[in-house]
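Appendix C: a fully annotated inverse folding record. The material below is reproduced so that readers can follow the format used throughout the book. The structure is listed first as C-alpha coordinates, followed by the designed sequence.
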Protein backbone atom coordinates (compact mmCIF):
# COMPACT_ATOMS: atom_id res chain seq x y z
CA UNK A 1 0.00 0.00 0.00
CA UNK A 2 2.81 2.36 0.80
CA UNK A 3 4.51 1.56 -2.47
CA UNK A 4 1.28 2.12 -4.39
CA UNK A 5 0.86 5.46 -2.62
CA UNK A 6 4.41 6.37 -3.55
CA UNK A 7 3.84 5.54 -7.22
CA UNK A 8 0.60 7.49 -7.24
CA UNK A 9 2.31 10.55 -5.69
CA UNK A 10 5.20 10.21 -8.12
CA UNK A 11 2.74 10.09 -11.05
CA UNK A 12 0.91 13.15 -9.70
CA UNK A 13 4.20 15.02 -9.26
CA UNK A 14 5.29 14.06 -12.80
CA UNK A 15 1.92 15.18 -14.20
CA UNK A 16 2.13 18.41 -12.22
CA UNK A 17 5.69 19.07 -13.43
CA UNK A 18 4.60 18.31 -17.00
CA UNK A 19 1.65 20.70 -16.63
CA UNK A 20 3.92 23.42 -15.23
CA UNK A 21 6.42 22.88 -18.05
CA UNK A 22 3.64 23.21 -20.65
CA UNK A 23 2.35 26.32 -18.90
CA UNK A 24 5.85 27.77 -18.79
CA UNK A 25 6.38 26.98 -22.49
CA UNK A 26 3.07 28.65 -23.32
CA UNK A 27 3.97 31.72 -21.19
CA UNK A 28 7.44 31.90 -22.77
CA UNK A 29 5.90 31.64 -26.23
CA UNK A 30 3.34 34.37 -25.40
CA UNK A 31 6.05 36.66 -24.02
CA UNK A 32 8.22 36.01 -27.07
CA UNK A 33 5.30 36.79 -29.42
CA UNK A 34 4.57 39.95 -27.42
CA UNK A 35 8.22 41.03 -27.64
CA UNK A 36 8.28 40.34 -31.39
CA UNK A 37 5.08 42.37 -31.83
CA UNK A 38 6.59 45.25 -29.82
CA UNK A 39 9.79 45.12 -31.88
CA UNK A 40 7.72 45.17 -35.08
CA UNK A 41 5.74 48.20 -33.83
CA UNK A 42 8.98 49.95 -32.88
CA UNK A 43 10.46 49.23 -36.32
CA UNK A 44 7.34 50.62 -37.99
CA UNK A 45 7.44 53.69 -35.75
CA UNK A 46 11.12 54.23 -36.56
CA UNK A 47 10.44 53.88 -40.28
CA UNK A 48 7.59 56.40 -40.01
CA UNK A 49 9.84 58.76 -38.02
CA UNK A 50 12.53 58.56 -40.72
CA UNK A 51 9.92 59.08 -43.46
CA UNK A 52 8.57 62.19 -41.70
CA UNK A 53 12.10 63.45 -41.04
CA UNK A 54 12.98 63.02 -44.72
CA UNK A 55 9.74 64.69 -45.79
CA UNK A 56 10.42 67.62 -43.44
CA UNK A 57 13.96 67.94 -44.74
CA UNK A 58 12.76 67.80 -48.34
CA UNK A 59 10.03 70.31 -47.60
CA UNK A 60 12.51 72.69 -45.97
CA UNK A 61 14.91 72.34 -48.90
CA UNK A 62 12.10 73.10 -51.36
CA UNK A 63 11.07 76.14 -49.32
CA UNK A 64 14.68 77.28 -49.10
CA UNK A 65 15.13 76.91 -52.86
CA UNK A 66 11.91 78.84 -53.49
CA UNK A 67 12.89 81.65 -51.12
CA UNK A 68 16.41 81.77 -52.54
CA UNK A 69 15.06 82.01 -56.08
CA UNK A 70 12.69 84.79 -55.01
CA UNK A 71 15.47 86.66 -53.23
CA UNK A 72 17.83 86.41 -56.19
CA UNK A 73 15.02 87.62 -58.45
CA UNK A 74 14.42 90.60 -56.16
CA UNK A 75 18.13 91.44 -55.95
CA UNK A 76 18.40 91.22 -59.74
CA UNK A 77 15.42 93.59 -60.07
CA UNK A 78 17.01 95.99 -57.60
CA UNK A 79 20.28 95.98 -59.51
CA UNK A 80 18.35 96.52 -62.75
CA UNK A 81 16.85 99.62 -61.14
CA UNK A 82 20.33 100.91 -60.28
CA UNK A 83 21.44 100.33 -63.88
CA UNK A 84 18.32 102.06 -65.21
CA UNK A 85 18.95 105.06 -62.94
CA UNK A 86 22.56 105.25 -64.13
CA UNK A 87 21.48 105.14 -67.77
CA UNK A 88 18.85 107.78 -67.15
CA UNK A 89 21.44 110.01 -65.45
CA UNK A 90 23.76 109.58 -68.45
CA UNK A 91 20.96 110.52 -70.83
CA UNK A 92 20.15 113.61 -68.77
CA UNK A 93 23.81 114.60 -68.64
CA UNK A 94 24.09 114.37 -72.43
CA UNK A 95 20.77 116.17 -73.08
CA UNK A 96 21.50 119.80 -73.97
CA UNK A 97 17.99 120.88 -72.99
CA UNK A 98 18.49 119.87 -69.34
CA UNK A 99 19.68 122.70 -67.14
CA UNK A 100 22.43 122.12 -64.57
CA UNK A 101 19.98 122.59 -61.69
CA UNK A 102 17.56 120.04 -63.23
CA UNK A 103 20.47 117.63 -63.69
CA UNK A 104 21.59 118.04 -60.06
CA UNK A 105 18.01 117.61 -58.85
CA UNK A 106 17.56 114.45 -60.95
CA UNK A 107 20.91 113.02 -59.85
CA UNK A 108 20.06 113.67 -56.19
CA UNK A 109 16.70 111.97 -56.65
CA UNK A 110 18.37 108.96 -58.28
CA UNK A 111 21.03 108.77 -55.59
CA UNK A 112 18.25 108.58 -53.00
CA UNK A 113 16.61 105.83 -55.02
CA UNK A 114 19.94 104.01 -55.36
CA UNK A 115 20.31 104.07 -51.59
CA UNK A 116 16.84 102.53 -51.22
CA UNK A 117 17.66 99.85 -53.79
CA UNK A 118 20.96 98.97 -52.15
CA UNK A 119 19.32 98.78 -48.71
CA UNK A 120 16.59 96.57 -50.16
CA UNK A 121 19.14 94.29 -51.82
CA UNK A 122 21.07 93.95 -48.59
CA UNK A 123 17.88 93.04 -46.77
CA UNK A 124 17.13 90.35 -49.34
CA UNK A 125 20.63 88.92 -49.04
CA UNK A 126 20.33 88.97 -45.25
CA UNK A 127 17.15 86.95 -45.67
CA UNK A 128 19.17 84.21 -47.35
CA UNK A 129 21.61 84.27 -44.45
CA UNK A 130 18.65 84.03 -42.06
CA UNK A 131 17.47 80.88 -43.85
CA UNK A 132 20.85 79.31 -43.19
CA UNK A 133 20.57 80.36 -39.54
CA UNK A 134 17.17 78.68 -39.37
CA UNK A 135 18.69 75.50 -40.77
CA UNK A 136 21.46 75.49 -38.15
CA UNK A 137 19.09 76.46 -35.34
CA UNK A 138 20.82 79.79 -34.67
CA UNK A 139 17.98 82.06 -35.85
CA UNK A 140 16.44 84.38 -33.27
CA UNK A 141 12.94 85.72 -33.95
CA UNK A 142 12.57 89.43 -33.38
CA UNK A 143 9.25 91.20 -33.26
CA UNK A 144 9.90 94.58 -34.83
CA UNK A 145 7.25 97.17 -35.55
CA UNK A 146 7.43 98.64 -39.04
CA UNK A 147 5.56 101.18 -41.10
CA UNK A 148 3.80 99.39 -43.97
CA UNK A 149 3.05 102.65 -45.78
CA UNK A 150 6.74 103.60 -45.68
CA UNK A 151 7.70 100.14 -46.94
CA UNK A 152 5.30 100.43 -49.89
CA UNK A 153 6.50 103.95 -50.73
CA UNK A 154 10.13 102.81 -50.74
CA UNK A 155 9.30 99.79 -52.91
CA UNK A 156 7.47 102.05 -55.38
CA UNK A 157 10.34 104.54 -55.35
CA UNK A 158 12.80 101.79 -56.30
CA UNK A 159 10.80 100.95 -59.40
CA UNK A 160 10.30 104.56 -60.51
CA UNK A 161 13.52 104.81 -62.50
CA UNK A 162 12.66 101.73 -64.54
CA UNK A 163 9.14 103.03 -65.06
CA UNK A 164 10.42 106.46 -66.14
CA UNK A 165 12.89 104.79 -68.50
CA UNK A 166 9.99 103.02 -70.19
CA UNK A 167 7.83 106.12 -70.16
CA UNK A 168 5.35 104.66 -67.69
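Designed amino acids, in order:
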Amino acid sequence: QCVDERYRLRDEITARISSLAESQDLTTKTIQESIEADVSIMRDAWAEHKRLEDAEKSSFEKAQALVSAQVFHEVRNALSSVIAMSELTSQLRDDPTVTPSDLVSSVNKMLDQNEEVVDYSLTMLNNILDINKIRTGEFQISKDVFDLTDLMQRATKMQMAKAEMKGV
